[in-house]
């Protein structure tokens, strides 16, 4: 079984400051890793994912996440945030072997960007 | 436009009154799934379907039913809703490829009094 822990439920930050949203996972098998973003009153959208290859993955809007196998982490970072990044962010994993492909989500981190 | 639609978006009902939340996707996706989102718990999978007439339980299936008679539709049925099913519900779909992106609907906020 897999589990995901997002270490911060809320992260307030000022505009143009850097931010890191932390995600740790537990699994006895290899997993795929995802970050989803949920803007207010909307459904979830995929931000980025790690399947294989380079451990650093990037999104089109400046976020990046690094897969660290030894620390079982997949932290999300952005060097300079904008007001429009205010949203809830979810880290998720799925079992590589299981074609059912269930996503196991963390509890979510609310990112609040203030001017 | 590729999308997942859910109806209704908001619903207030009373204990025991059967209801159905519809979900439809126009991307010809094989895989569909229902999640519920509760504060501090993230999203938890209720049921999923790998294809037409193939459904299976997720982590929190109690009190829910689903059906998959057509590829595009995956309704969620609450035969006898209870207050602990008050939640925000999301439908999602993707191709049959495990690694492909799941696309989420806009959500249905259900309140059971």
Question: Can you give a write-up of this model?
Answer:
Chain A is mostly beta strands. Chain A has strands spanning 3-6, 10-14, 19-21, 23-26, 31-38, 44-50, 56-58, 64-68, 73-78, 87-95, 104-105, 109-114. The radius of gyration of chain B is 13 Å and the shape is globular. Chain B contains no helices and eleven strands. Chain B is mainly β and 113 residues long. The termini of chain B are far apart. The interface between A and B is medium-sized, with 26 and 26 residues.
Number of helices of chain A: 0
Overall 3D form of chain B: globular
Write down the overall geometry of chain A.
Answer: globular
What's the end-to-end separation of chain B, in Å? 36 Å
Radius of gyration of chain B over all CA atoms, rounded: 13 Å
How large a portion of the residues of chain A is in β-strands, by DSSP E?
Answer: over 45%
Beta-strand level of the residues of chain B, as a percent range? over 45%
Radius of gyration of chain A: 14 Å
User: How many strand elements of chain A?
Assistant: 12
Question: Which helices and strands occur, and which strands form pairs?
Answer:
The complex is a heterodimer of chains A (115) and B (113).
Chain A: E1 3-6, E2 10-14, E3 19-21, E4 23-26, E5 31-38, E6 44-50, E7 56-58, E8 64-68, E9 73-78, E10 87-95, E11 104-105, E12 109-114
Parallel strand pairs in A: 2-12
Antiparallel strand pairs in A: 1-4, 3-9, 5-6, 5-10, 7-8, 8-9, 10-11, 10-12
Chain B: E1 4-7, E2 10-13, E3 19-25, E4 31-38, E5 42-51, E6 54-57, E7 65-66, E8 76-78, E9 87-94, E10 103-104, E11 108-112
Parallel strand pairs in B: 2-11
Antiparallel strand pairs in B: 1-3, 3-8, 4-5, 4-9, 5-6, 7-8, 9-10, 9-11
């Amino acid at each position: 079984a897999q589990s995901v822990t997002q270490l911060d439920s809320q992260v307030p930050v000022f505009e143009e400051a850097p931010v890191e949203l932390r995600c740790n996972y537990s699994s006895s098998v290899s997993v795929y890793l995802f970050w989803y973003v949920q803007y207010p009153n909307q459904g979830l959208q995929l931000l980025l994912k790690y399947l294989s290859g380079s451990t650093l993955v990037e999104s089109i809007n400046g976020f990046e996440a690094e897969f660290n196998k030894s620390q079982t982490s997949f932290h999300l970072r952005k060097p300079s945030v904008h007001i429009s990044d205010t949203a809830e962010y979810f880290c998720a994993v799925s079992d590589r072997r299981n074609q059912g492909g269930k996503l196991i989500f963390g509890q979510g981190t609310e990112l609040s960007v203030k001017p | 436009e590729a999308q997942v639609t859910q109806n209704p978006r908001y619903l207030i009902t009373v204990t025991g009154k059967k209801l159905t939340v519809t979900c439809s996707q126009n991307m010809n996706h094989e895989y569909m799934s229902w999640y519920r989102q509760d504060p501090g718990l993230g999203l938890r999978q209720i049921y999923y379907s790998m294809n037409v007439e193939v459904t299976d339980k997720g982590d929190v299936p109690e009190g829910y039913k689903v059906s998959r008679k057509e590829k595009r539709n995956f309704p969620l049925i609450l035969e006898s809703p209870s207050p602990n099913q008050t939640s925000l519900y999301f439908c999602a779909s993707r191709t049959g490829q495990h690694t492909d992106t799941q696309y989420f609907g806009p959500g249905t906020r259900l309140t059971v009094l």
